[in-house]
Amino acid sequence: MKWKTVLVHLDDSQRCDARMQFALDIARRFDAHVIGLYLVCQDVIHHIFEPAEPLFRRAYEQQRRTALDHARETFELAAKSAGINAEWRAPAGPVLDAALLHGRHADVIVLGQDDPDDATAFVVRNFVEDVVIGAGRPVLLVPRAGDIRTVGENVVIAWDDSREAARAVADALPVLRRARFIEIVTVERNKDVQAPAGIDISAYLDRQGVRASFASTPRSRGQSTGMTLLDRANAVHADLLVAGAYAHARGLERVLGGVTRNILQLSTLPVLLSH
């Protein structure tokens, strides 16, 4: 199994070029087709303009058109320079619906981490979370800052015996088969509750031609499970974290936080998330 179609979300944000190059690098590795999906926030115009201000509305819409044309030119030139087979899409309609529809026809979806310091990075509330939950495809999350020199050479797998974790491991197999080092990590959440054993998932991976080590790490006092996983990934210099998304009810995680929310908000390395 290989990834043959990579969909990357494009917008006007400061991090868009890095996300685009990330997707093109993944496509080059797997000889894949890349779809550049241009989606930006649509609600702002309704809050700024009243129907009695047609001149301002037209000026704003022209600005949006100019930004779209620039994004398309940048994407197509980058894909051509990289020798990647690519296509541009800028669908109309609700942005989340478009992301889910087009994402379901890809093998993997490349999204950017939320960036509270860049207003142009905002698409719609809970955009990343809802794509992860609704698309039925793995999402590769690109961090909001930092250079990405490698991805998938040194991988940490977050394991808790859940359905979501199993789905993430299966979805990540194209990358795992190429990795140099893989560590399966479980977090001991309670001293009275034994962490899930990794022997079965290790055996599964071995039959797939993937060798992985196993580590169980305790959660530090006052530290979340998500931060423990991220700390472990950084400690072993991982360039990819593989994790299942939302092992608990999504609404509960949005209110209380949780492993998925920690990873989405705080990760400084690329993350592959599956639900």
Automatic annotation (TrEMBL):
Alphabetical list of Pfam families matching this protein: Usp
Location of the UspA domain: 3-143
CDD domains reported for this sequence: USP-like (cd00293)
Family statement: Belongs to the universal stress protein A family.
Protein name: UspA domain-containing protein
Record organism: Caballeronia temeraria
